[in-house]
Amino acid sequence: MGVSASLLTAGVASFFAAACFAAGYLIAVYSLRASLKPAVNDDEKDFEKKRSILGVRRFLSLVQTVISGSAGVRKNDDAMVTVDRGRKSKKPVLLEIESLAEILEDFKMVLVVRNDLKMGKGKIAAQCSHATLGLYKKLHDRAPKALSRWEMCGQVKVVLRTESEEDMLVLQERAKSLKLPTHLTIDAGRTQIAPNSRTVMAILGPADVVDEVTGGLKLL
């Protein structure tokens, strides 16, 4: 867009220069014709003069219209650049857990596995990996201090179990009420379990606050 606008500006400048030359040429021709033409009455002189002036005015009006159109293109181009810059500079909204990372030190992640699905050990390991990575990606830009605090604690991960999808969703609502970030892993259903099954929920936050959500669960 910037290149096309520059080319259009250069073209308009050339056109304007040619227009000025043409206007000067018309005025010169009129003057020369007036000096060479036999004497006529005053009415004819006034008519010729007005006709020439009207022609020059029409030509200059056309030039002004073209220039105005070019200015509009440049204005739109500048507006698009401003919008693009605004989009690039827009920062993600931070999660409330960021403020907790400044006052609390002991952070951990809890992975809640649905025991009723009867997944094999390898399947559980894969689903826990998905949940961990999903939550990490969610917090990377929106809670970087919380992630750093968790990493400083040795990336603590505790795996617990729940007995139904309904219980898992209740835990998630409880976590949300405490402003703790969560991530639910939903399986594609290619092996062992049905498609779109919710398998593991990851929660990250201050250890004491996370325990308010999962403190009643047993280890897997």
TrEMBL record:
<protein>
    <recommendedName>
        <fullName>peptidyl-tRNA hydrolase</fullName>
        <ecNumber>3.1.1.29</ecNumber>
    </recommendedName>
</protein>
<dbReference type="InterPro" id="IPR023476">
    <property type="entry name" value="Pep_tRNA_hydro_II_dom_sf"/>
</dbReference>
<dbReference type="Pfam" id="PF01981">
    <property type="entry name" value="PTH2"/>
</dbReference>
<dbReference type="GO" id="GO:0005739">
    <property type="term" value="C:mitochondrion"/>
</dbReference>
<dbReference type="GO" id="GO:0004045">
    <property type="term" value="F:peptidyl-tRNA hydrolase activity"/>
</dbReference>
<dbReference type="InterPro" id="IPR002833">
    <property type="entry name" value="PTH2"/>
</dbReference>
<keyword id="KW-0378">Hydrolase</keyword>
<dbReference type="GO" id="GO:0005829">
    <property type="term" value="C:cytosol"/>
</dbReference>
<comment type="similarity">
    <text>Belongs to the PTH2 family.</text>
</comment>
